[in-house]
Amino acid sequence: MTAREAQENLPSGSRLLRGIGVSPGTVAARVVVLKRQTLRAGWYHLPAGHIDKEEERFTAAIAAAGEELTSLREKMAGDLADALSIIDSHLLMLKDRMIVERTVAIIRRNNVNAEWALAQALSEIKERFDRIDDPYIKERFADIKHVADRVFGLLAGREHQPLAVDDRPVILVANDFSPEDTLRMRAGSVHGFVTEKGGTTSHTAIVARSLGLPAVVGLEHATSLLATGDMIVLDGSSGQVILHPEPAEILRRQENDRLERARADELERYVHLASETVDGLRIRMSANIEMLGELSVVLRYQSEGIGLFRSEFDYFHGPEPPTEEQLYLTYRSLLETMAPYPVTVRTLDVGGDKFLNRFPGNKAWLDRERNPALGLRSIRFSLHERDLFRSQIRALLRASVYGHLRILLPLVSAPAELRQAKAVIAEVGAELAADCIPVAESVAVGMMVEVPSAVVMADVFAAEVDFFAIGTNDLIQYALAIDRGNQYVAHLYEPFHPAVLRMIRQTVEAGHAGNIPVSLCGEMAGDPQCAPVLLGLGIDELSMRPAVIPRIKRLLRHARSDVLQQLAAQVLHCGDSDQVREVLAQALPHLYPEPFYQR
Asked: I need a labelling partner for 10 at 20 to 30 A (CA). Which of 18, 168, 399, 525 fits?
């Protein structure tokens, strides 16, 4: 049933609201709306003799925030490893230079109070993140804000208020909740929550899924549309919220929830099974992640490696790029944890929608590009900033002895770029050898295939790299000339466009002709409707969000490789995306006995 159909079938007294479902489950309960006031003190000037005391007041608030988070962590059960890792990341943020050192510098430079200085530091950080379209990176600002809000509260002398006032089941509604707020819901009467902000990859959403707490986020104006005491049905799978539901609607939703939980229980059986077809074709199922804190989830779903580690997140932690030693420690931990499985680290993919404000020499030219998506970004930027690139490569090669490393070069569009990058890797390797610093005997070097020129030249590239990784998010954007962040043309962003499917096939054929594996790490990999087509096109590895792996694995284990190949051949003859979807609508129900291929 579509959202429109659901709306039409609701009684006149009911109302359908739509957000983003981020934690499955259906619950019916009364609403408690929490309208928290944002604590921000105004500016006031301090005499010179009071500056030291103001800095001490700020550092004391930082220390108290750390004690609160540490105490909360100690109270949590050990089975919430992914949630605990998020608390650890928040503890690290309390030491971050962007927050601490910048705030202290503003206090001292302007002779101002700590609250105003912290607000200014937070505003500077937000300005940087506002320029980013990548949701994985963009949503990390929410964590910084949650940490800052905790410090604001301590500076103001605010104590934590209980999230539920009695033992009756309730659904909390607020502008936003921090991951720590969500953890505090575990022991209370909270049966679910709704927020106005947030997305599927937010840490609040991750914690909700860990707790099995139904949640809907991104429901605009929720605190105004809903009132304390309202009865609602919250569907954390579809993102739907039914206001003033009839008893029959509650029963129907609860029955759907029971069926969905039964499916989830069945999927749990696939976590430990091999990712292979009925006739024995093995496909590697790996994970896309951006930080070490996500490794517990990767292990939970038994990913066969990291297919994409987005290394740029480390570059957003401070006003300056991370040091070689900092990167080395990150990569070493990553490789040690995942050994013996392969770990694919994408080198710095900055530019386009991922701006950095400060580089060595305080260069600001990157912000002035008129068309950054077609400008100095990704591998082009790394080759322009050789010292930055060499530092990352040194860290990677030093860490390579602790596991199975694969280096992935982003947005390669010409053989010359690839050869220059490989030359840097070889030079750094020779320097480490001369300094008697060990490096793994074999480190695979691959390239992202995400621009049309890389597809056309794939046969040439295949002779010079160890593997291909197709990045469909950018490939679709560049192939169709679609800015997916532009509200006027985003609807034209179409994974099933025949041109996109043919580009994937051409890349796979060129890779296999050159005896190299081809992986795919875009959003298509974790889409249950796309995955059968991709497997039929001959993709060797699918890399996706860890939690999606069991569902895609189930599809794979119920299929035969020849049937998947026939399906792929059929869609390749389609003239447009509508025809592709018609073919899938007819084929998938016969290929799989139950609607597990649906989103």
From this structure: 168
pLDDT tens digits, 534-576: 999 999 999 998 888 998 999 899 899 999 999 999 999 999 9
- List all residues 6 or more positions away from 217 whose beta carbon is below 8 Å from its beta carbon: 19, 20, 22, 194, 195, 197, 198, 199, 202, 204, 205
Task: Give the length of the chain.
Answer: 599
203 is annotated as an active-site residue: yes
Q: What torsion do the CA atoms of 230, 235, 239, 240 make, to the nearest 10 degrees? A: -50
By CB neighbour count within 10 A (0-12 exposed, 13-18 middle, 19+ buried), where does 456 fall?
Answer: middle
CA distance 421 to 446: 11
How far apart CA 102 and CA 120 sit, in angstroms, is: 9
Out of 191, 317, 404, 521, the active site residue is 521
Strand partners, 395: none
Angle at 494 between CA 491 and CA 497, to 5 degrees: 140
CA angle, 113 then 115 then 120, to 5°: 100
SS3 444: strand
pLDDT digits (tens, 9 = 90+) for 327-340: 999 999 999 999 99
pTM equals 0.72
Of 64-73, 160-169, 478-487, 587-596, the poorest mean pLDDT is in 160-169
Beta carbons within 8 Å of 382's beta carbon, 6+ residues apart: 347, 348, 388, 389, 392, 421
Long-range CB pairs of 435-440 (<8 Å, 24+ gap) are 437/398, 438/401, 439/397, 439/398, 439/400, 439/401, 440/397, 440/400, 440/401, 440/405
Helix extents (H) in 228-322: 247-268, 295-300
Adjacent-strand bridge partners of 24:
none
Residues 6 or more apart in contact with residue 100 via CB below 8 angstroms: 59, 62, 94
Do residues 555 and 418 share a domain?
A: yes
Burial class (CB in 10 A: 0-12, 13-18, 19+), 536: buried
Using an 8 Å Cβ cutoff, are 13 and 228 in contact? Answer: no
Nearest-CA neighbor of 148 among 178, 182, 168? 178
Residue 274 carries which DSSP code?
-
Q: Which of 146, 203, 317, 497 is catalytic?
A: 203
CATH value at residue 206: 3.50.30.10
If you write DSSP's letter for every residue of 102-147 in order, what string do you get? HHHHHHHHHTB-HHHHHHHHHHHHHHHHHT---HHHHTHHHHHHHH
Same domain for 395 and 294:
yes
Strand order in the sheet with 20-23: 15-18, 240-243, 231-235, 26-34, 170-174, 190-195, 215-217, 20-23
Last residue of a domain, one of 215, 232, 259: 259
Report which secondary-structure segment, H or E, holds 159.
none
Rounded Cα–Cα distance for residues 491 and 50 (Å): 56
* CA proximity to 500, closest of 550, 538, 534, 528: 534
Task: Report the C-alpha gap between 484 and 179 in whole angstroms.
Answer: 29
| 3-class SS string, 482-501 | CCCCCCCCHHHCCCCCHHHH
User: pLDDT (tens digit, 9 = 90+) per residue, 147-199?
Assistant: 888 888 888 877 666 565 567 889 999 988 888 888 878 767 888 999 998 88
> Within this chain, do residues 253 and 315 fall inside the same structural domain, yes or no?
no
Catalytic site includes residue 497: no
Q: Are residues 199 and 313 in the same domain?
A: no
Domain end, chosen from 259, 284, 313, is at: 259
Residue 408 DSSP label: E
